[in-house]
Amino acid sequence: MKIKFINYLLLIFIIFLNYNNFVKSDCNQELYYELGNSCGNTPSRLTIEESIYSFESIEVTPLVLPKLLNNYFWDLEDGINYTLSYRYKNCENTITTSFITKGMYYELLSEPLCLHTYIPIKVYNWGAGGEATNFYIVAPSIWIDSQNGVCSLKSVISPYSLTKGVLNDGALKFVGPTCGFKNGTITIDLTKGYSNCHLYLQSDYLFENEIQPYSEGFYNGLESEYYFLFVDSEQCGTERIEIYMKDFITPLEIDFENVPDFIHNSTISVSLSSGNNGILNYTNSIVFIENKSGLIADLNHTQAQIFPRTYYGYFYNKDFTTQNGQPQCKYSETLIFNYYYPNFNFTISKSDSCLENVSITFYPLPNQDIKVYDYSTETGIPFPMKNNVLSVGNNMKLWIFDHIQFSGIIYSTVFDVQSYKIVETSNGIGCWKTYNITIVNYENYKNLRIYSYNDDSEFYFYPVDGVFINVPASFYYVTYNAGDCETESYFTIDKLDTNTPMDGVTLEMTTLEIGNCTHETSFNVTVKSVFGTFSKTLYTFYDTDFTIFLPNCSCQIQASYEAPYLFDGDSLIYELLTDPNCNSTGNLIKFTPPSNENSIVSVNQNGVPLQYNSNLNAYYIGSGENLITVNYEGNTYCYRTETINIQSVHEVPLVQITPVSNCANPNGRIEISNYQNFYNLEVVINSNSESMNQGFIDNIPSGTYTINYSYNQTCINSITVFVPSEVIAEITTSVISNPTCDSGSFSDGKIRVSLTIEGNQINNFTILNDDAQFTYLNDGIYPVAGVGVNSFSISYLSCIWKTEFTTVLNKPTFTLEKVFNDTCTQPGAYKLLSSNPNIDIKSVEGQNNIFYQNNFYFRFQSSGEYGFYVFWNSNCYEYYTQKITVDNYHPSINVDHIDYEIVKADNCNSLKIDLIIKNMDKFITLNIENKPPTSINSTHSIFKNLPPTISYQVQYTLLNGCTDYQTIGEYEFTSGITKETMDIIKINDICYSGKGSIQLSNFDFNNYYYYINNLNGLMGLTNSLSSIQPQQSSNGTFLFSNYYPGSYKIYRGCKSMANCYLETNVTIESEDPIIESITVTDSYDKLNNGTVEIKLNYNSPYPINFKIIGTQFSNQNGKFGNLPPKTYEVQVTLTDRMCPITLSKSFTINLKTSPTPSPQDPSDELSTSSFVQVNLLFLSILIFTAFIF
Question: β-strand 72-76 against 44-48: which pairing, if any?
């Protein structure tokens, strides 16, 4: 009892000594700390090295929260006077010390009123000795290197206004100099509140050589250079504007006098837009046109080859010399001519039989080499022609080609052109729409059907009495044989719609058979929709995204299938690399994949991964029954499982443990009761082996020990045992901060551990993470806790206790917040924000960024989704993405800033086009190929005499300095480049009867040639052309009759100007029949003898029923008699399959009296008619008398 009491006194004494290790003997001892200054991408940081348990309290003011790791540290801002206050444990006095970091930081000395405001800033600690220096900058960026070049200061500044300033309100205008001359000008409108203008070259860094104005606010005689313009205003202070005076080169104009084609020489003239050709000689210019280089002596009526893309211009040395290698001035322009179809003159004759060939007669022009090819093949062999007459079969697509001009047209010899009517029959959306397609005169065609396909199958539809009923949306090929044709014809109808709304659609998936390592899993997909139920079986090894193409339509159902884990029932292939009779606790086993296509991913025993030996490519496996699962990966991802029974003939040591009962005096014991059965026994203590051949070892501290045992000299095994402590200890744990990332067994979670023994708090204990085998000696703070359960061994002197603590993931999120809006000259700035302000962001990778005062800033040039890595604390990182929308950086995206009017050429004899700009006051500069417009007034200007091309690229600079391009003319020139029009009269079709027509007049075959397109997708063609010949004219008028509904293109090409064309689209529609006329004969003298005849504007091949409502009168010819006087309504019912409609219209039969005869002169002799009338009167009296009596 006495000994036990002494031991307790000794323990208390040791604990007392340990506790006082953390009590400062000098309460006024100065704290050692490190102050790191910011430089580049690192913050200024205060770090102390002493244990956190040395202090009763410690803080930094202005308040900054510490970032606790294995010591205290604070990330600080520069330029702030901080105070560090601390009090040691068991001390009453608080010690304070003040400090200022020496990192570079700035102070604004003036407000950034506008985007270009020139503001002074003071940069502290810029000099090698910490001196402060003033600089001038323009928002929104700061980038200043320290005097010694070691550190950089980078930051962003947000101006108060992005819309004010000399650029935005149009007060600044500048015109670049003519190349080689010094005649550029800059004008500042001082009436808008601007003053104190100063101009310098940008290369004049010290601003020592000011360029003097010609007059206040006006500079002239400027050469092509980069300038700084300073200008003052009340709204923006002093602005600094960067101006690039770009050289202007007088544009070269080109006149096309004769362009017969794009292969032979053309006649052109060139001149300067100023009208002064002398400059071409004065500057020793060289004019070039396409491939023709060298000085063109005669600028008028010269010969040159013109191409569909014509490149032309001129150049000269900037010093006007002819010496090679000097800086040059060059003007060039590329003209792209739109349509060009060569002039093919041909006529076609067709037979009434499809079995007879089509005869095409060509009338070639001089030097014209015409070849005709089969457009559907790639043989490259032309058809033979005899005397310019080509005989080919029906239903062919021909490529008529001019071998000299390398251009051609497409022509189809289709025998009979079908017409159709298409009507939507559903209220569906997207691919769920259905249509009725009615074929006109379907009786004339054989094998009529619709062919279509999707990525999964082909499908066909067949008509009922010429009607394809409820055909789902798709791209249709309507195929048929016309007349006696053996060759099939077809036309196309584009109703393809892959938009597949899933409203009302159900998708079911069922696994049919789970695969294995060599066979895929099969699963069934069933789709139920308005088109019925469709099922399909698919196969896969893995989770898969798939698309189901529904049959007979364009609907595409997209879905995902999660494949089950594939089990392979075959036996495992393995071999033991060690003798199980020797290894009672651990054997090496090697597994072989089932095929070369598979590799082993992992091996588990009862769900726990086996330890891997990389040197032998094997695994450690224990004795007894082992349920082994081997996971394979390759073309498949599968597994095999099997129970492997490894029996050992040897026994293992039987261990008895005596716990440690005195932390100050290790007294643990390990005893092996069957020690006599082993050849040798050893225990490993501190990496040293000690013998246990006597069966025990004692006086050992708590801990985990390895016991090596052997049955002979070669067969050695080992086991591990744990010696606990029976000393009663109270262990409490609490969360300082949960881990912010899941990086395995140890992350960045911080746990406070408190150890109390018999009422005394212990500070100098050790924490061991059993999962990570990570030991930490920091007086009760474990700073690398992982997510979930953390198993700890708490070690103090000779004692070890086990404890667990559970953490949860507190993962931060990162977002980019816009702190500066985009402009056309500057991308916006974004600041990285964290949802957890206490984490220590180490770095950001993946995007260029700026670090300043503990913040990261980003700038993006364009919209898009950007990704970046954020690294924080000690072990954490994450990849984040965010969508960035750049609003104003490219201001012309989807915005047409230029208001304009195009004045086309009068005719092909003068291909000059004018472009009028109607809002010139919205731009600082505006040009085409460096050619400025001529001013008309304050708002209007004009580009005169532009050459023909498919469009013009107009470059502009807005008032706010934004520069971009706008394409003008690409839509206006599709119909031609002249003001001319073709006289066209169209008559619509009626009831799809082929009665439409196109009448053309005002033709000039001497100077032009003409084509007409009338196929509308027949044989898959939309651009097939037929030549219009003079002999088709009747008194100068062309009438193209019997046209069905559709779109038709009429093209006119100019014989002398291949780059001059005219194109007109004509759409013939189908109209319903109307009651054209109603002819009425009134009823006389109450005899009910009125008549009516109703006529339509359409003679249907099907019966037409005419009925007078409210009467029994009805017939099929529209003629009715014996009608009493009244108002009637006639109803006309058409049974025509193409337009089954009912028409009605009212008409009136009036009552009229027969006219009274004129009285006769008594002196006249009794005429024959009078005699007859008297006799009739007498006869009437007699009859009346007889009736009475």
Answer: antiparallel
Cα 330 from chain centre: 38
What's the sign of the alpha-carbon dihedral 862, 864, 867, 870? positive
Instruction: Yes or no: say if 1068 and 988 are a contact pair by the CB < 8 Å rule.
Output: yes
CA distance 224 to 203: 13
Three-class SS state of 1149 = strand
Length of the chain: 1189
C-alpha 254 chain-centroid distance:
41
* Tokens representing residue 1133 in the block: 């019912």
Q: Hey, is 106 helix, strand or coil?
A: strand
Using omega within 30 degrees of 0 as the cis cutoff, is the peptide bond preceding 1103 cis? no
Dihedral angle sign, alpha carbons of residues 685, 690, 696, 699: negative
Q: φ, ψ for residue 769 (rounded to 5)?
A: -80, 110
Q: Coil, helix or strand for 191?
A: helix
Our CA dihedral for 566, 569, 571, 573, rounded to 10 degrees, sits at -20
Taking a C-beta distance cutoff of 8 angstroms, is the pair 422, 436 a contact? yes
Q: What is the pLDDT of residues 112-141, one digit of tens each?
A: 898 899 999 999 888 877 888 999 988 777
Gap between the Cα atoms of 647 and 883, Å rounded: 62
CA torsion sign, 589 to 593 to 596 to 602? negative
Q: What is the pLDDT of residue 1131?
A: 96
* Ranges in the chain, pLDDT < 70: 1-25, 40-41, 52-53, 67-71, 273-278, 291-297, 580-581, 583-586, 634-636, 648-649, 745, 771-779, 825, 887-894, 1014-1016, 1034, 1155-1189
Query: What are the tokens at 285?
Result: 């210019």
Would you give the end-to-end CA distance of the chain in angstroms?
175
CB 629 within 8 A of CB 604: yes
Work out the burial of residue 786: count CB atoms within 10 Å of its CB; fewer than 13 is exposed, 13-18 middle, 19 or more buried: buried
Between CA 813 and CA 841 the distance in angstroms is 12
pLDDT of residue 850: 72
What contacts 1026, CB < 8 A, 6 or more positions away? 348, 411, 1011, 1012, 1013, 1014
Cα–Cα distance for residue pair 125/128, rounded to 1 Å: 8
Neighbours of 943 (CB within 10 A): 25
| Separation of alpha carbons 290 and 334, rounded Å | 9
Write the CB contacts of 300 (distance below 8 Å, at least 6 apart in sequence).
269
Containing 7, the helix (H) or strand (E) segment is helix 2-20
- pLDDT for position 481: 93
The tokens of 475 are what? 């791209």
Question: Using CA atoms, how far apart are residues 750 and 737, in angstroms rounded to an integer?
Answer: 5
The pLDDT tens digits for 547-575 are 999 888 899 999 999 888 777 777 888 88
CB atoms within 10 A of CB 509: 14
